[in-house]
Amino acid sequence: MRQRKPTGVWRLLGVLVTLLLIAAACGGDEGEDATTQAPATAPEPAPAPDAPEPPAPPATESAPADAEPTGEGASDDAGDDPAASDDVTATDDGAADATGSITIGAISTLDGPFAALGDFSMHGVKLALLEYGGELDGTDTRDGVSGATVAGLDIELVIEGSDATPDVAVEATRRMVEQDGADIIIGPLSGDEGLALKDYIRDFPEVTLVNGTSASQDLTLRDPAPNVFRFGGDGAMWTFGVGTYAYEELGYRTIATVAEDYSYPYDQVGAVLTEFCALGGTVAERIWVPLGTQDYSSFVAQIPNDVDAVFFAMGGTDAINFVKQYDEFTGQAIPLVAGPTAVDQSVLSELGDRAEGLISSGPVVDDSGLAEFDAFAARLDEVFPGQTPNIFNVYYYIATKSALQALEEVGGDLSDASAAFQAALAEQSWQTPIGPVVLDDNRQAVVDMYLRRVDGGIQKTIETLPKVNATLGFDRDEYIAQGSFSRDNPSC
Amino acid sequence: MAPDRRTEAAAGGAQVALRHLAGRAAAAAVGRNQRRAAQLAISGLLIYYVTAKSIQISDRSLLVLLNGLTAAALYFLMASGFTLLFGLVRVTNLAHGGVYLLGGYVALSVQRATGNWLAAAGLGFLFSGGIGILLYVLLRRLRGEGLRETMVTLGAAIVMADQALAHWGGVPSDLDPPAFLQGSLPLPASPLLYPKFRIAVIGLAILAGLALWLLLYRTRLGMVIRAGVDDRDMVSMAGIRVELVFCAVFVLAGGLAGMAGVAGGTYLSLAQGEDNRVLLASLIVVIAGGLGSLRGAGAAAVLVGLVEAFAQTHHAILSVLITFGTLIAVLALRPHGLFGRPVDARL
Amino acid sequence: MAEPPIGRSSPLLDVEIATAGYGTATVLDSVSFSAGVESLGIVGRNGMGKSTLCKVICGLHRNASGSVRLQGKEILGRRPAQIGRSGIGYVPQGRRIFASLTVTEHFQMLGPHRSKDWPIDRVFDLFPRLGDRRSHLGRHLSGGEQQMLAIARAVVRGPRLLIMDEPSEGLAPVVVDTLVDACLSLAADGHMGILVVEQNLHAALRLTGRILVMVRGAIVEDMPTEEFRNRTDLQELHLGVSRSDVLERPRQDSNLRPWT
Amino acid sequence: MRASERWRRVAWPLAAACIGIVVVPITASDFVLLQIVIKSLWLGIAGASLAFLIGQAGLISLGQTAIFGTAGYMMAILTLSYGLNIWLAAACAVASGPVAGLLVGLLSSRSSGLYLMMLTLAVGVFAFFFGQQYQPITRGHTGFNGFESPVIGDVDFNERRPLFYVTAVAAVLIVVALRYVAGSPAGLAFRGLRDNRERLAALGYNPAAVTVAAFAVSGVAAGIGGVLSVWYNGAISPGSIDITRIIELLVVVTIGGAIRIEGAFLGALAVTLLRNFASDFTNRVETLVGAAFIIVVLFSRHGILGLWLEARSRAPQVFESLRGQLRPRSRAAAGPPAR
């Protein structure tokens, strides 16, 4: 008698599941067009600016565009697209593509521990699109922007989230590239995601990846991909100048470092130590904290009593926990020097008074006085009330805007594997909210960094460090030869 | 001077403990109880190792001990409710971490609105208790089907985490401790301090433990709960509406998790992913201690907390491996945990 | 309400189970019998469905269809707590006393559910052993003590019908005798019916007035115990008890009076 | 008659699978083929190892990601760190699956039920942390990137269709093999473990040995799943075996239904579809996934597969007469007494 009750619900569930399966089948149907038509049209000269390129596996999105020459294909499409009810984006995209549109896919960490940073990133993307006539679809992070145009072409924004793991990032990106037909990808947020996406996107030369905030050096430093661009710094560049400042200005001779145990903090610690040790400083202890640790008390306890300062490199929750606990356990007896994201504006308000006076280096300061920065800050607050500039919204903004500017310059021409567009993108040189940017041969930005101090809850400039490059001013070959930073590299 | 004396005392204590253990291990070996001998030998080595290490940086050993106890306190708050719930209702509540997070977040909202930590803690406790009722209702019709109940709580955990993200966003945040628990106390013979609130958390866990003990061993409800842990069908057959007791335990477990969320949200912080982390820790504690055993939860909380603190201090990089390795070893040697009896944990 | 007279005319328990089982396996198939305020025994080999029958009556096994009425009220499909309150006491197979409660707590935990007729001293008069061990935990009791506790736990609620599943299982003959005596004295005042499932034929023969034989989920024989005692053919057929088994234990005819 | 019935039972699904292998790559788009079909297949293979443990042996293991990860890491380490021949590496990696399964089984051999679940959870989490922290072997948090699948002549397994054929054939083989094991005397012992550990012991089996054997068998499937996941992702990192993946595997098997091995593939497909397309309907994908999961579990004992079986058993007389064995159950469920 217990099994009797839920019959109705069961039936409903059955219907739901069936619908799902039908939806899946339709996805397949839609694909059928792509696979059967793509070979037929591939040899033809590209009829539309955004036509697919022969070497790449045909992207689903291109199917409708391809279909134009053959009436049969077009009618097929007309018949099938409505059926693909499970995938509204793809349908819209297909329709828009016929009249000429460009799809931008934005990926950031919308789930998991870095979800807040994902929100910030998307603010930056949307802000750039708003400058091109777009309007917000809604207030949620996953709500897109519609109506933006560049060179007369509509810009579609597709938003995907990951949870900061490479596998999920690749799948999300694959969805944007192959399902939604994204031409340009903005993102991702974290370092290892960036490396994974570099490998993926290399196989799609016509798609362009403009990095968000992934700060892995090897995104551009070693084995770069021709269609990957970074308009910001990497983890080491963001930390540039701190080691020297600590040695020369602050007079520290021995330091300890506390950092999360993965590649991004390795880069930060590596950059600090490279400078600091070159000047004659020594590192007494390198403490690596496993990711996912919340209670830093036992790690604070390992800091030797006799060091001059402690450099810490962390992000988000970890930074908050560390600073708070360091304060509680030591009363800040030994001064702290911070990594760039540990005192990023995105966590400053949560750090509160404890962050006052912390020295760090980084790309974003609040008092640079640049007109572009003030305009950006004002606009950000206007569109997303209460938001202030931080590394995530600024970088995603710069990435998106650079792409849009390059698109404008080439008139939205993405033919020939986006060759013209990528060339224009590589030539982008403009005054961003955080200073001028130009790209080097690896499509890696050379940008200004700032030595900064937390003062009154904002980052104030100590010194502007102009034109920091990917090798921190060292000889390129030597710098690359010393290998990726790791737990014990550099070995000073 | 002082450290030396403490070192000596510690060494002496360890020696006594070791001699005792060695004796028992030998006795067990003579008595052909090889497993027991192996267990004793392993614990002996562990004690020896820990002592040796704590002498090594002796001005930090008190701190490490306190850290271990603080962690243990948080784990105990989580684990006690979890173990009661499992013991009585046979539900492996994988949403326990979600309750922790939501309890903490509700308290955070209340504190932001009122500025009062105690009010925040109280409401966090009540809210989590309310979630306990919701879970109870959700699981009612699956009673007795352990695996399906577990799966439903897993689904609930996924929903809770996402709802927490939707309502409180991903920005990590923390509660401010009440004024009288702000600041730190100096640690003797060490340049380091110890935050008052952490000590209060240890106190809170001890209080909660005492209250639970009184409830379980000094009231009729407690008798019914214990009887239900042993055999809930027989409690039903005694005419007692065991469902009401179940509901009460759901509320209690939820409330305890919420309290842990408030405490953890104050001395650590609240963020996405915390639910899984805390859930994992409390699962470890509950299982290592033995399902349904309050005493076991207490002992295992202390064990896990201390092992974690020592491992983090002395082998930072491999600390998590040591913690989980210990758990695996405990469970492989004692499949029902330290204090567990072979209860029917069939799913 | 007047006490129903002893006998089968006004059944205390009326069972008509169509089927019961686990998943797709049927364990009980068309079981139907009535019991008055009498002492009724169910015998049969292992796996014939006797324990399942007890559980179905008590509401502990819910995959069953048909009807079970206690004093005319349908109880099949009710929750065990309701069934317990409506007047059934259950002494399960394997005793299942509360391992972590003391003997006294077994009675205290019942609170208002304990019958006023059963002050704790009366329990200890019935089972003096339990009185000696009143502050011991359930898990520290011997098998016989545990069985006494299980019976006492069911009885102190003042049930109309006491269901016992294999009460003599795993106990020494001497202990079994003690238990049987206690049960006989319990039933002596004629207020309580007893339904006992037994493998131990001796205990069953001593304790009951009527015997049902269960084979593969169905009742195949129903006769007074006196009659069954002499039907060694049936005993052999349905229980696999050979004549020598029965004779193994010296007969104490004075004790072998049927319960009436 | 029995033989023919048995044959029919095997033949239909096998024929369906063969048709699927032929038809799917023709009809599905590249994206659907890779991200839905192949993903579901390898996730299903990993799930099948768990479905086998749960459905056949009653062992709810959360340590399958450890086995899966061992094989995956083995694949990556042997080729990327040691430059071993890719086929040799693949063979070693697949072989490491049952070995890892054996180890997990040995650790859990004395546990059962919930304790086993938790012990294996600890093993799974240990594997994750090992991957994350023990850098000399595992390269830490970053893990291995840039894995290239093998190429034989013109057949490049980095391409989607070859990868599909490999994965699909592996999936079919695994289903056949696991069903074969389930039908063999060993399968009887496994079910004995599931239904009644004590009785199994009374029958002269050693439950611990049976547990270890079940884990080793499941390790084969998990190992193959792990290797294929590396071929699919071209990478492996601790993120591939973290706690969310542990949970995902459990969700896959539960949604699909562990009652049969095939349920895992159904569950994998459902989860993959949800993850890929749910964001078109809602901004709160995870809530949707969680809620869908709760609903399936609440209303079906054996996931989607259970719904299907139930629907079939309720279907008109035609089916009723064909599947007589389901009748007692529906009669038992016929409900309250007539009077």
The biggest beta sheet of chain D is recorded as:
2 strands, antiparallel
Q: Give helix % range of chain B.
A: over 70%
Rg over C-alpha atoms of chain D, rounded to the nearest angstrom? 21 Å
Return the string of H and E elements of chain D: HHHHHHEEHHHHHHHHHH
How confident overall, as mean pLDDT of chain D? 86
Largest interface in this structure: A-D, 62 and 54 residues
Distance between the termini of chain D: 42 Å
Write down the CATH topology of chain D: ABC transporter involved in vitamin B12 uptake, BtuC
- Tell me how many strands of chain D there are: 2
List keywords for this structure.
heterotetramer; A: 492 residues; alpha/beta; Rossmann fold; five-stranded antiparallel β-sheet; globular; disordered N terminus; C: 260 residues; 11 helices; 34% helix
In brief, what are we looking at here?
The complex is a heterotetramer of chains A (492), B (347), C (260) and D (339). With 260 residues, chain C is α/β, with parallel strands linked by helices.
Can you offer a commentary on this structure?
The complex is a heterotetramer of chains A (492), B (347), C (260) and D (339). Chain A has 17 helices and 17 strands. In chain A, the strands form four sheets. Chain A has a six-stranded mixed β-sheet with strand order 4-5-1-6-7-8, sandwiched between helices. In chain A, strands 13, 14, 15, 16 and 17 form a five-stranded antiparallel β-sheet that branches. A four-stranded parallel β-sheet of chain A has the order 10-9-11-12, covered by helices on one side. Chain A starts with 6 loop residues before the first helix and ends in an 11-residue tail after the last helix. The relative contact order of chain A is 0.11. With 347 residues, chain B is an all-alpha fold. Chain B has one domain: ABC transporter involved in vitamin B12 uptake, BtuC (Orthogonal Bundle). Chain B has a two-stranded antiparallel sheet with strand order 1-2. In chain B, helix 3 packs across helix 11, helix 4 packs antiparallel against helix 5 and helix 11 crosses helix 12. The mean pLDDT of chain B is 85. Chain D has 339 residues and is mainly α. Chain D has a two-stranded antiparallel ribbon with strand order 1-2. In chain D, helix 3 runs parallel beside helix 5. The radius of gyration of chain D is 21 Å and the shape is globular. The C terminus of chain D is likely disordered. Chains in contact: A-B, A-D, B-C, B-D, C-D. Chains A and B meet through helix 5, strand 10, helix 11, helix 12 and helix 13 of A and helix 3, strand 2 and helix 12 of B.
